Amino acid sequence: MKGIEELAIFGGPPLFSEPLHVGRPNLPPRDGLLERIGAVIDRRWLTNDGPCVRELEARLRDFLGVRHCVAMCNGTVALEIAIRAAGLHGEVIVPSLTFIATAHALQWQQITPVFCDIDPRTHNLDVAQVEALITPRTTGIIGVHLWGRPCDVEGLERIARRRELTVLYDAAHAFGCSHRGRMIGGFGDGEVLSFHATKVFTTLEGGALVTNDDALAGRARLMRNFGFEGYDAVGYIGTNGKMNEVSAAVGLASLECFDAFVAANRRNYERYRQGLAGVPGITVLRYDDAERCNYQYVVTEVEERLTGIGRDRLVDILWAENVMARRYFYPGCHAMEPYRSYFPHARLLLPETERLAARLMTLPTGTAVDEATVDRVCELIRLVVTNSAVLEHTLGRPRLLA
Ligand code: T4K
């Protein structure tokens, strides 16, 4: 490992010659993948509820133990369709510490996202605060199982029942995770998955609504296909939310490797925990090993009081070394447009969101990252934190910053 004077911010060569990204795709072996894609091409049935989409939906229903899976072109459109098919309108309570798509899927259809603070232990909706935000205009709650860790589903569903609200979950991070032994996918009125390239299970772009509600699934299925109820018959307003056959083929091949993808994530996660143990001020977020977890995000909290270096400066130093750590989900949806202008005082109600958004850092993992790489990243972070006083002093000087 280099010394601090050799760090790339001081002009040394970066630790890694190629950028080490968060979210490199996990892909199945090339031969099996190309065979499935070849079969799609040979069939010349490329989209519109094709055989691969149907097979993928069936496999996902079995895997998640749900009655319905409606595969879509991406997670965002799946959220938009789920929201519309569930009849949400007016105001919907959501966390702000999430990817912007959660809020946009509501605002896109003139529904007001009401941002709720999170429980700092779980990073998920604080149920007590949800209740306080309910108004006569509230029609639903969208919980996000952030990092794949389940929301307090029992708490949310209790409130929803009492106040007659719909509960949807944005389960974009939670594919293959469980809560109290039950797979995520079957909770609330419906759950939405993302199969984006950066997710543990990918269909290139893709997503799905999964639900046990027959009527909700039926509406979503129609909405996904312009509202067509049959040839020449449209019974609903709809959009084009269809998944294509190549995406579904990639999904089918990926499902066969899913356990191996999770195992790689878990191995890296344990390695990060070992490698960062004892580094002052750096905590690796825990998963509940008694449940099924996908371990797709290695999330750390950087506590500046103990590290002696702020999260943002640490990220800058890592980027210079080609370790492309991410600040998910800084600064929180409420602090981005249009929400920042709509609700300029929202931050006053979101102290935990603001506090966490300023200190979370996500590190590279997945099948593209091996244990030796994790070790080097951990050593680098240890080097920076151990020398934080010198670094802050040196980097703080305008001469070097220029
Ligand atoms: N709800 C939640 C809670 C979500 O996290 C998301 C998506 C959604 C809803 C919406 O689902 P989708 O509509 O996306 O299905 C990324 C993803 O684009 C986004 O899907 C994901 N969440 C979010 C957490 O991460 P960015 O802006 O960080 O993406 P980007 O382009 O910087 O990619 C991340 C890294 O991945 C890159 O640094 C390089 C690597 N990468 C990416 C792609 C696309 C690759 O190596 N290969 C690739 O093909 O949002």
Set out the fold topology:
Layout: E1 20-21, H1 30-43, H2 51-64, E2 68-72, H3 75-85, E3 91-95, H4 100-107, E4 112-116, H5 127-133, E5 138-144, H6 153-163, E6 166-170, E7 178-179, E8 182-183, E9 190-194, E10 207-211, H7 214-224, E11 228-230, E12 233-234, H8 245-256, H9 258-276, E13 282-284, E14 298-302, H10 304-307, H11 311-320, E15 323-324, H12 339-342, H13 351-357, E16 360-363, H14 371-386, H15 388-396, H16 398-401
Parallel strand pairs: 1-15, 3-4, 3-5, 5-6, 6-9
Antiparallel strand pairs: 2-10, 7-8, 9-10, 11-12, 13-14, 14-16
This protein binds ligand T4K.
Ligand inventory reads:
ligand T4K
By CATH, the topology of the largest domain is Aspartate Aminotransferase, domain 2
The CATH architecture of the largest domain can be given as: 3-Layer(aba) Sandwich
Main beta-sheet strand count, sense and barrel state: 7 strands, mixed
Structural class: alpha/beta
Helix content: 40-55%
User: What is the typical, i.e. mean, pLDDT?
Assistant: 96
Strand order of the largest sheet: 2-10-9-6-5-3-4
Which class of the largest domain in CATH terms? Alpha Beta
Low-confidence stretches: 397-402
Strand content: 15-25%
What's the number of helices?
Answer: 16
CA-based gyration radius:
22 Å
The overall strand count is 16
- CATH homologous superfamily of the largest domain - what is it? Type I PLP-dependent aspartate aminotransferase-like (Major domain)
The first-to-last residue Cα distance is: 27 Å
Number of domains: 2
What is the 3D shape? globular
